Amino acid sequence: MARPVKPTRPSRARTAPKGGAEANRNARLAGFEEAELRRLIELVQQTGIGELEVTSRDRTVRVSALPGGGVRVTSPGLAEGGAPQGGAPLAPERAKAEAPPEKRAAVTSPMVGTFYRAPAPDADPYVEVGSSVDVGQTVCIIEAMKLMNEIESEVKGRVVEILVENAQPVEFGQKLFLVEPA
Question: How far apart are CA 101 and CA 82, in angstroms?
Answer without folding.
Answer: 9
